[in-house]
Amino acid sequence: MTIFGLGLDRLGLFLVAALLLALTPGPVWLYLISRTLTQGRRAGYFSLVGVAAGQALHATLAALGITVVLMAVPLAFEAIKLVGAAYLLYLAVNTLRGGGLSFTPQPLAPVPDGVLLRQAFVAAVVNPKVALFYLSLFPQFVLPDAGPVLAQSLVLGLIQIVSAVVVDGTLVTVAGALASFFATRPLWLRLQRWVLGSAFGALAVWLALTPRHQNP
Question: Where are the beta strands (DSSP E) in the chain?
Answer without folding.
Answer: 2-3, 6-7
